[in-house]
């Protein structure tokens, strides 16, 4: 008998990170990093489970969990092999469900829910294959990879034939690049020094530590106070020395005009990129800012809702670095589409990470990009934040500023059961101690 | 003692419209029109309640309800007068909550939930004022109206001062326009004839009925089959005669290239506009299609997620008609912003309606636009679909193809309690008879 999916279980897991101002920026002063977590179980004797999650920053994580639960009837009862053998088809079914798509379409809570479930399916597929996800993806033929992608709304920028040609171009060097990754890892940059809530002394200390740890790029949050930003940029530059790249991140703080003024004021400190200067929905705004602050590069993507918006950012030349997130667009499949778009337009992908578990996930996508899509690590770095990795069964491993290639089968998405219990919201023991403040005074 | 909000209750109400193929189009073959419904209650002796809802088409309505429930702590316990006297402030608090905004930002399920609650607040405010909403809005000064709008991410296209100037320009003629509206109503167009699921005979009969009822514009759904679309356009043109405007609506069916080809093939039938040719997220795609199918006008908006995307459509000249929806962007306040943007760019607003209750809501916004913002009814029409009005306490009234101006206090958003009970999902009596089919085979 072929095995079937027997359950899709969700849980609301929240970490009280706001207590330490970890993760504070101009738009998110007090995040409680959270996961709307999903476990897919089958009746297969192998006992493997698929784990995935949507990342949120606290309030609303229960809404995200409810959205994941709404996908239960799409999987439970179906044959595992049918679904895992055609994850392109499964993706289309979930994303284009004619009733659910009204809740987006392809954006926000429902799309992130699909992300969690799609990623859990990939985790399961990789565990069953006995491979880390990046290796599983790197073992797929160009034709199979193109079959994962939904080209709806993309064909004015990228056709299936063009995608196939891009992938075939890189097919030859895959083994050599896999070997390089397994030997040297993938470059990371450090965001931990630069949260807005930290004191100048803590900023200075963390900058020095990042350099000592081998990072060649750090990032500072900006956008709350220009004088403070200039002071913090100066401190960071002094602490890091002249050779370290210092990126800045405004977390959507500005309108177009104020963005240009603020960035121009910080230009003397030579920011490596300026990230999320304005609304992630404003492709024209990003293009206008890019044009007016050149040669300072603009980066964005962690809040970009789907491949259609990424397509437009690329069509306009609005970004010089494209930042994918593993859990906002609809999972692995849509990120493959976005990696292909970036390759077509020649824009380096520098993934967003941090939060809880985002580093664990996105490292697989960056490494797959290197092996099979862009074929390059030039000017490419994965964000690294040293938070909450201890809650994962297969946590990221960082050595001298680089992500080591994951070796365990799966998507590195499995959170320790004891962490899921301890940080369960609102009934877990940790939340019995933390009183949740009301959202209004 | 000043009164406070004492409860925010949600309910999941679904109508089994898919049984009759009402509402079927190229992307939504079998919608069950649904409302994630919210009732705000206070301890005021006036006994007024604020009613609002997010509209969905079936599956996922429970997710939408959960999102509305997540807003409960933002209102319950607060003083009613404080909130209702500063609905601009209340809007900002809900939309910019630093944790909830991660779930969007400003899009999808969470934004639609805010829409439902913001609209319920306006319903309550209008009931307390003893005015239909459109009259309440029309009684506000230009300064008060500008105070409702969040200009974040808009100032490269529209500043508060420009908005104020636009509103002051129309302030003089308000009384005369109110009198015209109360006498003659506001033009409507009829979508009921054109659903894809209907037979040719039914299409012909409904076209004739629409003309006999006084409508001067109808709309056909297209995009599933080109030959069938040409045949249906021919039937509609014959049945309506040469003087009736026939708009077409593709419901996001096409990529850019195929959109241009399909619309070009339908051009001989002189469509009045082509609606939603592609993804609502693709502002560049809309601009490209507009350019290539000119002079056929492009319309969009029912799925446009927020004011930032509307801004870009207008900046690019990508649409000739802008279609607001009362319950997708974050309620009245954001629609005031969008009406102001449209006025700035000189683009007529022709609201989306239909579904359940959308006609009831959006008529107020179109009438407010006429009285206080655009000052014009030229080439402006509100969509009208003759479904489910019987479930509302203050249903729309249509005479000779025009919406009569609502007279009852409030936002016309109150659904009859017996309808909410009967169609409650999944436990109401109607759903005890209809078995819900599984979403997959």
TrEMBL record, chains A, B:
Record keyword Magnesium present: yes
Q: Which GO terms describe its molecular function?
A: L-fuconate dehydratase activity; magnesium ion binding
Which keywords describe this protein according to UniProt?
A: Lyase, Magnesium, Metal-binding
Per the UniProt entry, the Enzyme Commission number(s) are: 4.2.1.68
According to its UniProt record, which reaction does this protein catalyse? Answer: L-fuconate = 2-dehydro-3-deoxy-L-fuconate + H2O
Segments of this protein annotated with the region Disordered: 409-441
Looking up InterPro entries in the UniProt record yields: Enolase-like_C_sf, Enolase-like_N, Enolase_C-like, L-fuconate_dehydratase, Mandel_Rmase/mucon_lact_enz_CS, Mandelate_racemase_C, Mandelate_racemase_N_dom, RHMD-like
* Cofactors (names): Mg(2+)
What processes in GO biological process is this protein linked to?
amino acid catabolic process; carbohydrate catabolic process
Q: Where is the Mandelate racemase/muconate lactonizing enzyme C-terminal domain?
A: 200-296
PANTHER family per the UniProt record, alphabetical:
ENOLASE SUPERFAMILY, MANDELATE RACEMASE (PTHR13794), MITOCHONDRIAL ENOLASE SUPERFAMILY MEMBER 1 (PTHR13794:SF58)
Protein name according to UniProt: L-fuconate dehydratase
